[in-house]
């Protein structure tokens, strides 16, 4: 059993929490607000059922003071004004990353951006515009085009110096197999932004170069993103002849442009992830396809080899030449067996005669034995001649059988100048003129090869 120290377990929790939640958005109500002299802001956000400690370090707060300008850390946009004036009970949206504070062993949200939730008039205008465009069919799914996978020509409509385009290009650089990206610069915030966005989109359509259009902007408040909630931008998206991917703000941000576009993604980075797969996945896919192709080819070869062996065996068994060879081997074996039987028969008779000779010699005198030997010699000669005649008859039968086999060989007549004719479409031998018609292809096989011809009535 392993025993952890407090430091070890705290460090482990810190690593897991910060890895799993590198950047999140959290909505809730401000409570326990504190502003110490350090300039950092501490508070808790709650939804009534749970609370989450938040620290908003001074370095992450935008510069204070009316008329002062600062850079939004999430969007890269130039903004004026000071940080949000927080109050207990205020509904806010906090963006940041999770962190564990080891001295107290507590987890907290380190805020990078805090914005107030809900601008009443703008929300009402947003819902009104949404209903109007929905009635006109701007959001209909059946009008939306399919987004191409791994496009080679991509048009990006966005601010050329914002964080959105940097994030998009950073992701695009390490994904897919390479693509050409054209940036159509435009304002993405302010009174002139809707007109410029619409003009940039129309320019993309007129160029007719891109396979897909990407409309992106970093996160911000409802006022910051309002250009993408205008009817002018919605009209430009609706008349698009090219598929449009829209990535405005962050996952919690929804704009009218998101609803009209062919595809809505959570962030500008997600837009690049939607268009191009990760290269390691592509390489793994190629490896898997290569392995599958090799296995399929090997299986194909094995099947074909097995089929070829089966056909070769069948062909050899049906071949006339192979049949004659089998018959000849059978006759040779029978001839050898016949020769062995004849030798055994003669040997047995010789043994029997010798035995009788000894018995006769023992039973009778010399003269009688001589006469009997003479008679026996004659019988032996007759037996030898009979055996010779028997063997000659069997050899003659063997020769007749061999001759019959040669006569039955379909290729034997070819040696004498004859030919074999087959009908090409059926593969059968031609035995009668009625079996072919005018124009039929035939094959004439002769001793030295084959001739192809066609039947004519002339």
Question: How are the SSEs ordered, and which strands pair?
Answer:
Elements: H1 6-20, E1 24-34, E2 41-46, E3 51-56, E4 69-71, E5 78-80, E6 91-101, E7 106-116, H2 120-135, E8 153-158, H3 163-173, E9 180-185, H4 193-207, E10 212-217, H5 231-238, E11 244-248, H6 256-260, E12 263-264, H7 268-275, H8 279-318, H9 320-363, H10 366-408, H11 412-415, E13 420-423, E14 441-446, E15 449-454
Parallel strand pairs: 3-7, 8-9, 8-10, 10-11, 11-12
Antiparallel strand pairs: 1-2, 1-6, 2-3, 4-5, 6-7, 13-14, 14-15
Helix pairs in contact: 3-7, 4-5, 9-10
Verbal overview:
With 458 residues, the chain is of the alpha/beta class. It has helices at 6-20, 120-135, 163-173, 193-207, 231-238, 256-260, 268-275, 279-318, 320-363, 366-408, 412-415, and strands spanning 24-34, 41-46, 51-56, 69-71, 78-80, 91-101, 106-116, 153-158, 180-185, 212-217, 244-248, 263-264, 420-423, 441-446, 449-454. It folds into four domains: 6-117, Beta Barrel (OB fold (Dihydrolipoamide Acetyltransferase, E2P)); 122-277, 3-Layer(aba) Sandwich (Rossmann fold), CATH 3.40.50; 320-409; 415-454, no CATH class. It has eleven helices and 15 strands. Strands 1-2-3-7-6 form a five-stranded mixed β-barrel. A five-stranded parallel sheet has the order 9-8-10-11-12. Strands 13-14-15 form a three-stranded antiparallel sheet, with no helix packed on it. Strand 14 and strand 15 form a beta hairpin.
Summarize the structure.
With about 450 residues, this protein is α/β, with parallel strands linked by helices. The protein is built from 11 helices and 15 strands.
């Amino acid at each position: 059993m392993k025993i952890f120290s407090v430091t070890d377990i705290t460090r482990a929790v810190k690593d897991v929490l910060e890895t799993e939640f590198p950047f999140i958005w959290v909505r809730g109500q401000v409570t326990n607000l504190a502003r110490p002299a350090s300039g950092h802001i501490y508070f808790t956000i709650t939804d009534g059922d749970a609370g989450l400690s938040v620290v908003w370090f001074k370095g992450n707060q935008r510069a204070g003071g009316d008329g002062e300008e600062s850079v939004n850390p999430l969007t890269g946009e130039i903004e004026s004004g000071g940080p949000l004036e927080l109050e207990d009970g205020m509904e806010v949206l906090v963006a940041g990353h999770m962190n564990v504070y080891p001295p107290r062993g507590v987890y907290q949200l380190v805020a990078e951006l805090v914005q107030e939730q809900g601008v009443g008039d703008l929300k009402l205008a947003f819902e009104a515009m949404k209903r109007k465009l929905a009635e006109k069919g701007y959001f209909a799914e059946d009008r939306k085009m399919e987004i191409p996978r791994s496009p080679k020509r991509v048009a990006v409509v966005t601010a050329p110096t914002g964080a959105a385009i940097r994030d998009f290009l950073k992701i695009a650089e390490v994904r897919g197999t390479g693509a050409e990206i054209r940036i159509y610069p435009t304002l993405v915030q302010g009174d002139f932004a809707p007109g410029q966005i619409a003009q940039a989109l129309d320019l993309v359509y007129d160029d007719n170069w891109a396979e897909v259009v990407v409309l992106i902007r970093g996160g911000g408040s409802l006022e910051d993103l309002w250009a993408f909630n205008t009817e002018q931008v919605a009209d430009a998206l609706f008349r698009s002849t090219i598929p449009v991917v829209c990535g405005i703000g962050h996952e919690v941000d929804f704009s009218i442009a998101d609803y009209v576009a062919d595809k809505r993604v959570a962030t500008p980075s997600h837009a690049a992830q939607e268009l191009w797969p990760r290269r390691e996945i592509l390489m793994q896919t190629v490896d898997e396809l290569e392995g599958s192709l090799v296995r399929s080819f090997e299986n194909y070869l094995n099947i074909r080899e097995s089929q070829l062996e089966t056909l070769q065996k069948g062909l050899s068994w049906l071949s006339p030449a192979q049949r004659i060879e089998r018959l000849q081997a059978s006759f040779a074996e029978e001839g050898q067996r016949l020769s062995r039987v004849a030798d055994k028969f003669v040997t047995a008779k010789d043994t029997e005669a010798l035995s009788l000779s000894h018995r006769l010699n023992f039973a009778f005198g010399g003269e009688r034995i001589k006469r009997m030997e003479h008679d026996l010699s004659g019988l032996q000669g007759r037996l030898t001649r009979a055996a010779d005649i028997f063997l000659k008859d069997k050899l003659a039968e063997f020769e007749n059988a061999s001759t019959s086999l040669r006569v039955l060989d379909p290729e034997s007549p070819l040696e004498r100048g004859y030919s074999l004719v087959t009908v090409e479409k059926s593969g059968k031998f031609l035995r009668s003129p009625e079996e072919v018609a005018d124009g039929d292809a035939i094959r004439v096989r002769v001793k030295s090869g084959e001739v192809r011809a066609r039947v004519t009535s002339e």
